[in-house]
């Protein structure tokens, strides 16, 4: 049965393919599912890194005198 999900063809070096295949076998999933999961994890890491950079920038520009007090919010 054909799938409606988009597909991506990826070319991996032999050592990398062997490593991913080993992870898939260890986890008892198909190679395709393992690659999907690894891509998801990589995207989450990228997002976390971007958010951390935004937080650092905000921390550097933080001025206590301009901060909103807890009692003012609640």
Which shape, going by the Cα principal axes?
elongated
Helix share bin? 55-70%
Q: How many β-strand stretches?
A: 0
Order of helices and strands: HHH
What is the makeup of the main sheet?
none
Task: Quickly describe the structure.
The protein has helices at 14-27, 31-60, 70-73. The chain has 74 residues and is an all-alpha fold. The chain has a domain at 31-60.
Walkthrough of the structure:
It contains three helices and no strands. The radius of gyration is 21 Å and the shape is elongated. With 74 residues, the protein is mostly helical. The chain has a domain at 31-60. It has helices at residues 14-27, 31-60, 70-73. Helix content is 65%, strand content 0%.
Keywords summarizing the entry:
74 residues, mainly alpha, 3 helices, 0% strand, elongated
Topology, element by element:
Blueprint: H1 14-27, H2 31-60, H3 70-73
Helix pairs in contact: 1-2
